[in-house]
């Protein structure tokens, strides 16, 4: 019996960068370990959100403050004998790109049109090395190391003329997992744990004409991911994932900012951990074409969120199609995301961000050697 291979299905999961927790850009899937033979895959993605809000008290509008962003990934997989498999993955695990409009009187804009509004930029590149070892009874053990290289900047010209620039730091974590398979029905369940990664940045904080050099500790949070798939009919596959991330440990609270610019405040923090769910169906139509449909969900918490990431959960639907010819497979997909309404506070200003959404597209090209 033949079942729909997971190409289009797994591509739908990663159509466009992820949104989990507001700053996650990849779902850190280990599915490449289960590709056949020697395999390499290059991926590109784009997400264009529309996120804006207005103050409940004054009616001041934020404007569209979340620009579109791109993503890229590269992955390689190689068998080592009959029981061992290795993989190397290059991706962008977290990121932020925030820009408030400078032409209005919103508190995070600029008090004059000669300056830009508030903006923030977080860039991270991840390299993950994985090893999978097959045991009897269709069980596999997975382990690996992950390195993340991260830097960030923040500029709040309308908030005490505050800015922050960080050093670029590279730090390491580990991955542990276990998998079970039943190949005759294309069944597979994979559970992986990714450890937290702690960065210690050197920062320069500026408020008005004063500058200070400080240390800033930030934790890229630990996570637990469950991925599964199974054939339900000839050439038909159901698949999905559930991913928990300890976002309450992700906190950006620089000394000068919390000490005197916004006393007791944080640039970024979370009140809740986040679980992101995906569920889909894949179908193989012939030797060349397969397709999938996927829905995603992240709970709306209803608590206050940060002004540099005013989103609260989401619902999404995605479509993907894969064309396979010879040793090449090409997958394209599109995803619509209904971004959860969020509420923020900044001093006396309370703002609701509602009715927001976004569209993501992705392209993946794989080659079997």
TrEMBL record:
Q: Which UniProt keywords apply?
A: Signal
Residues spanning the signal sequence: 1-20
What this protein is called in its record is Uncharacterized protein
Lineage, top ranks:
Bacteria, Pseudomonadati, Pseudomonadota, Alphaproteobacteria, Rhodobacterales
């Amino acid at each position: 019996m033949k079942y729909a291979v997971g190409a289009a299905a797994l591509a739908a999961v990663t159509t466009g960068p992820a949104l989990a927790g507001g700053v996650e850009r990849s779902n850190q899937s280990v599915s490449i370990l289960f590709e056949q033979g020697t395999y390499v895959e290059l991926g590109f993605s784009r997400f264009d959100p529309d996120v804006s809000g207005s103050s409940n008290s004054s009616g001041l509008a934020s404007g569209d403050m979340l620009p579109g962003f791109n993503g890229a990934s590269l992955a390689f997989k190689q068998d080592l004998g009959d029981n061992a498999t290795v993989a190397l993955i290059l991706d962008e695990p977290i990121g932020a790109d925030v820009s408030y409009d400078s032409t209005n009187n919103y508190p995070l804009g600029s008090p004059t049109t000669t300056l830009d509004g508030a903006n923030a930029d977080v860039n991270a590149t991840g390299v993950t090395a994985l090893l999978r070892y097959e045991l009897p009874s269709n069980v596999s053990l997975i382990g690996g190391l992950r390195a993340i290289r991260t830097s960030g900047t923040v500029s709040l010209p309308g908030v005490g003329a505050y800015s922050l620039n960080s050093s670029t730091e590279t730090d390491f974590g580990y991955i542990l997992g276990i998998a079970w398979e039943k190949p005759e029905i294309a069944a597979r369940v994979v559970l992986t744990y990714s450890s937290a990664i702690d960065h210690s940045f050197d920062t320069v904080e500026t408020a008005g004409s004063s500058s200070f050099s400080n240390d800033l500790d930030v934790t890229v949070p630990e996570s637990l991911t469950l991925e599964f798939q199974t054939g339900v009919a000839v050439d038909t596959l159901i698949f999905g994932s559930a991913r928990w991330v300890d976002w309450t440990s992700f906190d950006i609270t620089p000394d000068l900012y919390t000490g005197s610019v916004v006393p007791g405040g944080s640039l970024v923090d979370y009140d809740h951990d986040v679980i992101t769910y995906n569920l889909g169906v894949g179908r193989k139509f012939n030797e060349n074409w397969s397709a999938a449909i996927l829905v995603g969900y992240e709970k709306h918490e209803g608590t206050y969120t940060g002004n540099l990431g005013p989103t609260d959960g989401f619902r999404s639907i995605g479509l993907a199609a894969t064309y396979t010819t010879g040793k090449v497979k090409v997958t394209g997909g599109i995803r619509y995301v209904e971004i959860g309404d969020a509420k923020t506070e900044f001093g006396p200003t309370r703002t609701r961000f509602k009715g927001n959404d976004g569209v993501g597209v992705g392209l993946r090209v794989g080659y079997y050697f």
